[in-house]
Amino acid sequence: MAVAFHHCSLAPLQSLNATAPSGYVIGVIGEAGSGIETLLQLAAGVETPQFGSVEASAPVQFCGPWDPVTSWRAGSLALFHTLDLKDALTRAQAAIELEKLRRAGGTALLASHDLELILWLADEVWWLDGGRLAAKGDPKETVQAYRHHIARRLSELGRGANIALTPTLRKGDGRASLEIVELRNSAGDMTSVLCTGETVCVRVVVRFAAEVAAPVVGILIRTRIGFEVFGTNTELENVSLGPCRAGERVEVVFRFPCHLCPQEYTLTVASHDPDGVWHDWMEEGLAFSVTDYRYTAGVACLRTQVTACKL
């Protein structure tokens, strides 16, 4: 008993050619609109391909997001997000039923956006992208490739603009003002999403309204809940900006690798004297997020080389 797609096309699917073997649970992943629902409907006979053909061992059963988990007796089973909204107990029951289906030689196509669920239950994973089969094979390898893709897509979506916040604090004596604060990615584009490890650039332009002998410009990154992650300034980095006269503008660029774990962050920027007297302090003026293709705990993403041996 198996499910076979022979050069199948039905929008958005394009010439799909793949076989789900007997005794397998195939995890199906991809973005919305990639053709996952169409794939499962074709497998269950709910839809007919415009081109090509589909073979599926009878009996065939299609289950949607709201259908219950039952004792599946199908030869071919299509689960379209059926487990996404189920509780832990129901999911465990489903795992038992899918194991029974495997042992009976049945085949299941399991679609879900929950990648951990897919890694738990699937013997093989198919990744659909734009109606085509982007990758198929080992669950860990295919899911990792998909996560790389999603990280790139998130980075692309954040490109072109910063997320300016209403600063929680804006205070200073007015001798200088923060005229421009920008966050840019490794390509030099303004962005609100960074990939772990890429080079980040914080560009600050300060306009001086009065003479300042030794101005200092600094930045501070915090997590969304206010935990201080990293801060530096021109004085710490041995960069002299002064003296600056009234009417002058100074550009300061901080560039560093983004070794941060995936989550949301804020950026605070300030111009001040060496003794800490503020000219202009912008608390949490920008927001940005960091994305990665894998889970990493904490805040600092320290890519680690690991070796092991038996003693």
Could you name the key traits of this structure?
311 residues; alpha/beta; Rossmann fold; Coagulation Factor XIII, Chain A, domain 1; 2 domains; six-stranded mixed beta sheet; 19 strands; 17% helix; 41% strand
Tell me the layout of helices and strands.
Elements: E1 3-10, E2 13-20, E3 25-29, H1 36-44, E4 51-56, E5 60-63, E6 76-80, H2 88-103, E7 107-111, H3 115-121, E8 124-129, E9 132-137, H4 139-158, E10 163-164, E11 169-171, E12 176-184, E13 193-195, E14 199-208, E15 216-223, E16 228-233, E17 249-257, E18 264-272, E19 278-291
Parallel strand pairs: 3-7, 3-8, 5-6, 6-7, 13-19
Antiparallel strand pairs: 1-2, 1-4, 8-9, 10-19, 11-19, 12-14, 14-17, 15-16, 15-18, 18-19
Structural overview:
The structure is a single chain. The protein is built from 4 helices and 19 strands. By secondary structure, the chain is an alpha/beta fold. The strands form 4 sheets. Strands 10, 11, 13, 15, 16, 18 and 19 form a 7-stranded mixed beta sheet that branches. It is elongated, with a radius of gyration of 27 Å. The model has no long low-confidence stretch (mean pLDDT 94). The chain has 2 domains: 3-158, Rossmann fold; 163-291, abc- transporter (atp binding component) like domain (Coagulation Factor XIII, Chain A, domain 1, Distorted Sandwich), CATH 2.70.50.60. Helices cover 17% and strands 41% of the residues.
